[in-house]
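Note to self: the last two entries modelled the partners one at a time, which told us nothing about the interface. This time every component goes in together.
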Amino acid sequence: MRLLYLWFNHLGTDLASKSQNPPPHALTEWVKNTQRLATLSPAAITRGLRHGQQLADAYALIPGLIVAPLDRKRLSEDLLKIGYFCQQFSPLVALDGEDSLVIDITGIPRLYGGEEQLMTQVIDALKNIGLNVRAAIADTKGAGWALTHYGSENTILSYGQGSYALNLFPIKALRLEEQIVESLNRLGIKTIYDLMQLDRKQLTRRYGREVVDRLGQTIGTHSEPLTPLPPESPLSAELKFPDPLSMLSDLILAAEKLITQLLLVLRNRDLGLTELTLCALKTDGQMQTLNCGFASPTRNTALILNLLEDKLETLHSDYGFESLTLHAKSVAVLKDEQSALLSKEELEITNTDLLTNLGNRLGFENLRYLTPQATHIPEEQIIMRPTLTKIETNLPSPLGPRPEMTLPRGEPIEIITNAPDGPPSIFRWRRQVRNVHSVTGPERISPPWWRMTHGWCGQRDYWCVQTEEGPRLWLYRNDEPRWFVAGEFG
Amino acid sequence: MTILREHFQDLTYIELMATGTPASAFSAALTLINNESSTWILAPGLAALPSLNPETLLVCAPSIREAYWATEQVLRSGTIKTAALVLNQPYDLIQSRRFKLATEAKGASLIVILPSSFQSFSSAAQERWHIAPKKPQEHHLPLSHWKQIKNKKGSLSELKVEGYAPTLSVV
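The predicted structure of the combined assembly is written out below.
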């Protein structure tokens, strides 16, 4: 078994201060009527503070020290969230103590290119969310604990090395009680090697099973179970009815209850709905499903209910429904924000509601933004993005004029009278004869040499042509040479 | 010479028709909308795209009924000031009346762009204009002739419009 041990040595202060270079920060707790430092930020440790120090002494050293009370319950909840975050690397993640995680990575490193790469990736991911961590890879949880607490930073212990690689570690690294460590130290037993030389039966007789067990768990001769994190509660809500429901008004009431239940779960996890499915179980055992999508993550009950109301009408109830289940099919992070004071954000939220309404009926693929692209090919300069995520682009404007109306592809024209070195003087387009009044151009555009674009072969010369009849057209000539209309100016 | 937009300040529901392709009507609509928040709704079967800025939402309706529905939704949303509906066929009076009510609900404006081949049909629009591009005169600026073919509040008029979108002006 290979385990990745993660020790969040500044967990409390990391979670409390999210800035890049936080000031000295400490969390305190009451110990025997005295306020003592429980967790310290790296900056506070650098300035000379230590764990267990009295708060008054700490203030004497650093007058500007930022202090907050330690909330152990909140800390354990946060550690659980970090554990679920780490499940992206391995399905088996276990909590260890108040500030550590153990990840079973057996068979996984090959997916990341090796154990070192995997460890680096985990550390980087945790650093990105503002957590300081010491990591180690070993065969046992005990060895991982010893390496993270007493070894050098981010160590990898090769398979089967536990028994002798930890020889020189102090016996404190065996997770023993303070009294036992002191007692052993008084006897001159300072390192794990010293302890391993002693007779196990004598040790058990004098100190109980703990010392031998801890030693065995660290070097790998005794097993130590891991308790994986419980699965996250599903993002769904269900209502079962004592009698089948068939009336639309009853179904709407039930749907409202379900939405409230589901949104409560999502709010606790700072999530918003982007897609949901409502499953309605009929009395004959058949299931009907309704799907809704949202333009952006939402926890707006009224909006969701409004969408579901329209769709509930399409259900065929026959003899009624036995139960309704609402599943969050897709979710995204959505933090609580005070938007009431921000008029611009309010406007955006309402726009999002409009997009959601349109997208649910017409399909989100039919809502598009015309997005400029960094290319000189006229047909590719503007693309339709069938998505609602806009890209902010500050692209330079094209050198030449561009028409108000573009055709998806060039429409060929029939030349009636040709002109030397320029567009034809009389031509027919869409069955109408056009006499050229004046021309501007050419603007020469070549396709990228590394790929074929829209069947281009060679360069094109674009001309802005004013006709006697009125329309101003954008013509181009290819290498063959043939003439086409690319668009019309307004 | 006056700015074209000033002529249409009080209009909430207008129909534009252009000779040939809808390019002139696109250009006119871009001028009338200017920089306001707008949404363009395209009916199915259209083979040309207006030149819009990236902030403008484009709704490609899968059917003509959905195009009508989307237009009403946009007008009633309260967040979009102007909707431009591009159609390739005329619409009936009932639908037109629904658009009129939708524009009144939240004070939004509607510009309907239609092919010039359907000039005589009933609708609730305040004005209907026919736009024909013309050969430029001495300024060499693009010129178009605007002919009013319906006006609910007065006599019919004609305009000569010059320049480039979105800064067209009346000569």
